[in-house]
Design a protein that fits this description.
This protein has about 950 residues and is of the alpha/beta class. The protein has 28 helices and 34 strands. Strand 2, helix 3 and strand 3 form a beta-alpha-beta unit. The radius of gyration is 38 Å and the shape is elongated.
Length: about 950
């Protein structure tokens, strides 16, 4: 039993070497971070980092910034993406690279146009009352305002880059470069004007590319329509081919019916209808219907046909039908041929496809494949039937104004009413299915035949860059040559490029870079004259794209007859804009290179920026503008649901920064698996804050323990105690992991091992064991000096390893220890000697930890039962029957390892009743109490306390330390 300690003869607190540091426990990040940002700005940090690496002859690394849209304050998705980019930039600097990163913005496009139209409306002005020049100026000013707002938001996150030389697609030089890239496609014959069905947004009054369309569930009317056969076999005559469609409004545009030669079709005669119906069905006994055999049952169920007899098999080749409206208006009195097409299936419907070549890609292709060239124009840009469309002129397919904008108009009901009147409707219903919507307006889109400009995907191009390859072939080869993080991105973009149509690049709007070219009215071909192109580019470079819309054509055409040429007023697809950014950001600039090492964006950009950049660069340079692509998922709320202001589940980065600091967002971004969708919310941010506190406390403890440390007290490796050798081994191990993880952009594989190291190896082991030595040993003691030597090595590496992820805190820690040093951000990872590797110590301490876990378990029982308080009251007797575990403890101070005052090791099995853990065999513990008196300085209970008459209340070790302390101050 321990004797009660006498009243101390003096206050020994001043002799204890407690950690001392001005580095506060409470971070105060919202206040501290702006101070650090100001210091970085004063140091011109990004350019200082580049200059430092360039002086060292460092290799160049280029991250090309995918431009965010200059519209609105930053959101949490922005914060994640820009933070990931900053991880890349800072980690590449840390690995010794010279990193070129120029932030940029996408400025053209519909969202800004809509906003300006809205603002004009609020002022009582209409868009058509405003000149194009004034409208474009308003758009430009609006974008410039949000560039400033977003830039400040990104910089507040700690993102470093060449902010002073940022790029924007609306800059005059950028617009000139975009048009110059467009001219390259014109010059090489890859551009053509075609009249074909494209996805059209009546609400936005423009064509849309695939990348601008997203699919949502939509409830559509479904109709089964009869087309009477006018030419065909005897069995077919008098029968009707039945089609099924979810777009009744396209029936006036019907010109054919498609079938598949591999499908079996039959003529069926209706013999009986269902009884007891509340309405009179449109079919009746005696009707003869032609459908796919496999789908006949589904068709008859929809039409309420109780019984039908298959008359015979039908060969559809050469059959011609009558249009269902032929008996209502002469406009529809033309033959409707049956055309064979592979796109027809018998998975649903009737096995026949109603074919309107002006309103569907497959319809268009099968129509052309059978030698037809005339494409009917049925619906105008506003989504209404043209005046020449009999029976339906002026009716809206989609509403474009007012509260009903984006809703389907009266066209569908009107068509169904006329089908009933003509006795051509067999059945109708409703269907919930996936339907294309504009990703901007969220309104449904339609396929509509319209003249547009396209870039060919499948025509060989005889240029130096393409060498006879098609654009599709060049792009697919480029994909194979690109590294993808994660690897699954390759298959995703490859499948999109393999199946994509020709690139639609024209838009019928005002705010964008123009298709600045002239078309010969006689040949219908674009004018390619280098002198004309140069005048166009020069004018745009000086005055912006406005020059194209405001200057007279004679300024550009030179000696060409202006009456012979049509000036194209369309603007370029904004994806062509952003897909061209590599041309004016990476080329013709000092200290950068083309292609970029990396593009980094969200996974949706496989169909967006990654692909448009790939196509633009492949078409003009024969390869991708990047060597690697990294993609991240989307941000979701804590329940895995999509964020929405209406749901109130959004996370505002500005609020998080104001309340907790940008460092918490950065740490969250580093801890997630960014390749998947990531969750964030109050609970997750609280967990992140807890992890941050552990990291901060680890760094703070080291700063305190290293107070007044100098290289003079460093201990050489061969003199290190086993525990220090183990921690150095862990540093060697982590060094390899951290370097490899940063090389592969696996930031989670940096932070999580470091968090584990700080918690398990440092706080729970190294610091815990060495606390007594650090506080109470003489400064000259080898063990204390070795511990501080290792702590210095840990501090040097932790502040480097973590600097890309939590740079504010690491900067604060570094400048606390070295107030006059350069920024922590200028450092590279310290070299970790190979000699630190020590697999034997790693194996030893794994075994030691097993034994320690049994001792800790035994003492926890004693504390719980109130038989013992602190571990220093204990003198456990530890029985170790496992010889391997026993050998691991040789040469170690068991009491120090177990954090007790005394300890005894006994080889062999423990007595009955001794504490054991089932998961650790061969170890048993008797939790005995320490014998002796409590040291007034170290609180260890030892029989020797009081042996030194100079210090009757101290252990011998503590008495020696205090004597040295007193002597130094005598």
């Amino acid at each position: 039993m321990a004797d009660d300690a006498p009243t101390p003869t003096r206050d020994y607190r001043e002799t204890v070497f407690l950690p001392e540091t001005p580095f506060p426990m409470r971070a105060g990040l919202p206040q501290k971070e702006p101070q650090i940002l100001a210091k970085w700005a004063e140091q011109n940090l990004y350019h200082a980092m580049r200059a430092d690496r360039q002086r060292a002859g460092a290799p160049l690394f280029v991250l090309h910034d995918g431009p965010p849209y200059a519209n609105g304050a930053i959101h949490i998705g922005h914060a994640l993406q820009k933070t990931l980019k900053d991880f890349v930039v800072r980690s590449r600097f840390l690995l010794g690279f010279d990193v070129d990163y120029v932030p940029g913005w996408d400025c053209h496009g519909l969202p800004i146009e809509w906003q300006i139209e809205k603002e004009l409306k609020e002022k009582g002005r209409r868009k058509d009352e405003v000149s194009k020049a004034e409208f474009r100026t308003l758009c430009r000013d609006y974008a410039a305002k949000w560039i400033d707002v977003q830039r400040d938001g990104f910089k507040r996150l700690g993102v470093v880059g060449d902010w002073e030389n940022r790029y924007a697609t609306m800059d005059y030089s950028s617009e000139a470069a975009i048009v110059a890239e467009f001219h390259k496609f014109v010059a090489t014959g890859q551009l053509y004007r075609g009249s074909k069905p494209v996805m059209w947004s009546p609400v936005e009054r423009t064509a849309l590319a695939d990348a601008e369309v997203e699919y949502h569930d939509h409830n559509s009317p479904t109709i089964w329509v009869k087309f009477p056969v006018t030419e065909g076999s005897d069995a077919a005559r008098g029968a009707s081919v039945v089609i099924w469609t979810t777009t009744p409004w396209t029936i006036p545009a019907n010109r054919a019916i498609s079938y598949n030669e591999a499908i079996d079709y039959g003529v069926y005669q209706v013999e009986a209808m269902e009884e007891g119906l509340e309405f009179e069905p449109w079919a009746k006994p005696g009707d003869r219907l032609i459908v796919a055999d496999k789908l006949s049952g589904d068709v008859f169920a929809a039409a309420k046909i109780a019984k039908a007899r298959r008359v015979e098999k039908i060969d559809c080749q050469g059959m011609v039908c009558e249009h269902p409206f032929a008996n209502l208006d002469p406009h529809y009195q033309f033959g409707v041929p049956l055309l064979a097409g592979d796109h027809v299936t018998d998975d649903a419907g009737t096995g026949f496809v109603h074919t309107a070549p002006g309103h569907g890609a497959d319809d268009y292709l099968v129509w052309l494949a059978h030698g037809h060239r005339e494409i009917p124009e049925t619906v105008d840009p506003d989504g209404a039937y043209y005046p020449h469309v009999a029976l339906f002129a002026g009716l809206k397919v989609l509403e474009t104004e007012g509260k009903k904008a984006g809703k389907f108009g009266p066209a569908n009901p009107a068509v169904m009413d006329k089908l009933i009147e003509a006795d051509r409707l067999l059945a109708r219903g409703r269907l919930e299915h996936s339907y294309p919507h504009s990703w901007r307006s969220k309104a449904p889109v339609i396929f509509r035949n319209t003249p547009q400009w396209f870039i060919r995907m499948d025509e060989p191009v005889d240029t130096k860059e393409l060498g006879g390859r098609t654009l599709r072939e060049a792009a697919l080869e480029a994909i194979e040559a690109t590294a993808f993080h994660p690897a699954g991105g390759k298959n995703r973009i490859r499948s999109m490029v393999e199946s994509r149509p020709d690139w639609l690049i024209s838009r019928q709007r005002a705010w964008g870079a123009p298709l600045a070219m002239f078309v010969d009215k006689e040949t219908n071909q674009p004018l390619h004259d280098p002198e004309v192109d140069k005048r166009i580019i020069d004018a745009i470079g000086q005055e912006g794209a406005d020059a194209w819309f405001t200057r007279p054509v004679t300024d550009f055409l030179g000696s060409h007859d202006p009456d012979r040429y049509e000036k194209v007023e369309d603007i370029l697809d904004v994806w062509f804009d952003s897909g061209s950014t590599h041309a004016f950001t990476l080329e013709d600039r000092a200290h950068t290179k083309w292609p970029a090492d990396l593009y980094l964006e969200g996974s949706d950009q496989h169909r967006g920026w990654f692909q448009s950049s790939l196509l633009e660069s492949s078409g003009t340079r024969g390869r991708a503008p990047y060597d690697a692509i990294l993609t991240h998922g989307f941000t979701m709320d804590e329940n895995g649901e999509k964020m929405s202001k209406s749901k109130g589940n959004t996370v505002d980065p500005e609020t998080v920064i104001r309340e907790s600091g940008a460092e918490i967002i950065r740490l969250w971004a580093s801890m997630i698996d960014y390749a998947d969708d990531s969750r964030i919310g109050k609970t997750i941010l609280q967990t992140t804050s807890d992890a941050y506190r552990k990291l901060r406390n680890t760094v703070r403890y080291m700063l305190g323990a290293l107070a007044d440390y100098s290289a003079d007290e460093a201990v050489e490796l061969e003199e290190m105690p086993p525990l220090e050798r183990f921690i150095l081994h862990r540093l060697w191990e982590l060094d390899g992991q951290v370097r490899a993880a940063y090389e592969a952009y696996l930031f989670q594989d940096v932070i999580r091992p470091i968090l584990d190291f700080c918690q398990e190896d440092l706080s729970a082991l190294f610091f815990d064991i060495r606390r007594d030595s650090l506080y109470c040993d003489k400064p000259t003691e080898l063990k204390r000096r070795a511990a501080r030597t290792v702590m210095e090595a840990v501090f040097e590496r932790l502040t480097a390893w973590l600097s890309p992820l939590i740079p504010f805190t690491m900067e604060e820690a570094w400048t606390t220890r070295y107030p006059d040093a350069h920024s922590n951000c200028l450092r590279t990872i310290p070299i970790t000697p190979a000699e630190w590797r020590n697999d034997a110590e790693a194996a030893r301490w794994a075994k030691v930890q097993k034994v320690t876990s049994v001792v800790t378990g035994a003492l926890e029982v004693e504390r719980r039962e109130k038989r013992m308080g602190a571990a220093l009251e204990a003198a456990p007797k530890v029985y170790v029957a496992d010889a391997d575990l026993m050998s691991a403890l040789e040469g170690l101070d068991a009491a120090e390892v177990f954090r007790t005052s005394q300890a005894t090791l006994v080889a062999g099995e423990g007595p009955a009743g001794a504490f054991c853990l089932p998961e650790v065999g061969g170890v048993a513990v008797e939790p005995l109490k320490a014998e002796g008196r409590k040291c007034a300085r170290s609180w260890r209970i030892l029989p020797e306390v009081g042996s030194d008459p100079r210090y009757p209340d101290l252990s011998l070790r503590d008495a020696d330390a205090v004597a040295a302390w007193d002597a130094a101050r005598a």
